[in-house]
Amino acid sequence: FMQKVIAIDGPSASGKGTVAARVAAALGRAYLDSGALYRLTALHAQQQGVEWTDEAAVAALAAELPAEFSGSRVWLAGADVSEQIRSENIGMGASAVAALPAVRAALLQRQRDFLGVAGLVADGRDMGAVVFPDAELKIFLTADARVRAERRAKQLHIPCTGIEFERILSDIEARDEADRRRAAAPLRQLPDARLLDTSHLSIDESVKQVLDWYRELS
Ligand code: C5P
């Protein structure tokens, strides 16, 4: 039994979100940005004055997360927080709350609910390992840390040299390290996942590779 899911896991700023959303659109499937759920949980906790390390309290918030998704926008308690959840601070918060097993458990079914009849493309850290272990196609999408930092810098309109850039690079490396070393659903390439290194690929080329692999399945 295989689930109609393409699971794309990988480190931060690898471009997996962009690729996953494009693949979903090309195949007429739903798209799950699972990182957004952890980011929303971190923001929600911050707004409610709950410490990111308070496992029980954060898990309780995650279980009742007042979040809504529509296209590429995301709302929290009725407010559009699409840009707010992309900050590096909330990224660190997401990484912190994502290390707590009770928080991961609280978000598990919510992620699975994104799979409807049309099928799903899901991106995150544990899509293939935990959330959709029977996904028909599993991909580990990555790129050199420096290339990822350059992509993030471009998004933020920051030059790819200098102290601000080095800061982005070290933030990315710190978050990867935390995601890899944690006990709960650590970031890793599964034996049954295909490796897609996008260091030297454009978004179009990355999307094409995923679609080629998908077509090989049938
Ligand atoms: O992918 P994104 O950078 O938005 O994810 C933010 C953080 O959420 C990651 O650093 C990771 O710690 C966590 N995360 C996770 N499992 C997922 C998706 C994200 O632990 N499936």
State the gist of this model.
The chain is α/β, with parallel strands linked by helices.
What features would you highlight for this structure?
Cytidylate kinase; 9 helices; about 220 residues; binds cytidine-5'-monophosphate; alpha/beta; Cytidylate_kinase_dom; about 50% helix; nucleotide-binding; five-stranded parallel β-sheet; about 15% strand; three-stranded antiparallel β-sheet
Map the helices and strands.
Layout: E1 3-9, H1 16-27, E2 30-33, H2 34-48, H3 55-63, E3 67-70, E4 73-76, E5 79-80, H4 88-98, H5 101-112, E6 120-124, H6 127-131, E7 135-142, H7 145-155, H8 163-181, E8 194-197, H9 203-217
Parallel strand pairs: 1-6, 1-7, 2-6, 7-8
Antiparallel strand pairs: 3-4, 4-5
Helix pairs in contact: 1-9, 2-3, 2-4, 3-5, 4-8, 7-8
Bound molecules: cytidine-5'-monophosphate (C5P).
